[in-house]
From TrEMBL:
InterPro entries: DUF488
Protein name: DUF488 domain-containing protein
Pfam families: DUF488
Domain of life: Bacteria
């Protein structure tokens, strides 16, 4: 199974959609808690659904069960971005949500996990992909 990931910040729409042009990629999976803000620019939910289909011929799916909670995000920001604390809290959350059993593998297969962070290093999309890889096995992760 292959899972792609991408963040939209520090990318133009052209760069973003060009990176999504990957063999086997069929669906953009929005993992953000907040995806309707004006700050999201071309990645606001309804716009992104339209652009994904028209530009990349990709399905769009919002899976809020993959998003961190507001409490976890707020605590991360208040603690000056302590990644280790955030990572533990987020991994505990997705384990509690049992995403490996509540989300059908066919939804993730050929999907690209989307969030706002420019790189995967300090981003929950990477944690989701790695978590599912640990639970499901044989997952190839490709960060775009």
């Amino acid at each position: 199974m292959k899972i792609f990931t991408i963040g939209f910040t520090q990318k133009s729409a052209e760069q973003f959609f060009t990176r999504l042009n990957q063999p086997g990629l069929v669906r953009l999976i929005d993992t953000r808690l907040n995806n309707t803000s004006q700050l999201a620019g071309f990645t606001k939910m309804n716009d992104l659904r339209y652009f994904s289909r028209k530009i990349g011929n990709l399905d769009y799916l919002h899976l809020p069960q993959l998003a961190p909670t507001k409490d976890i995000l707020d605590a991360y920001r208040k603690n000056g971005g302590d990644w280790d604390v955030y990572e533990k809290q987020y991994l505990d959350l997705i384990a509690q949500r049992r995403i490996e059993t509540t989300i059908d593998r066919s939804v993730i297969e050929g999907g690209c996990l989307l969030c706002s962070e420019a790189t995967p290093h300090h981003c929950h999309r990477r944690l989701v992909a790695e978590y599912l890889g640990d639970k499901w096995g044989e997952v190839n992760i490709c960060h775009l």
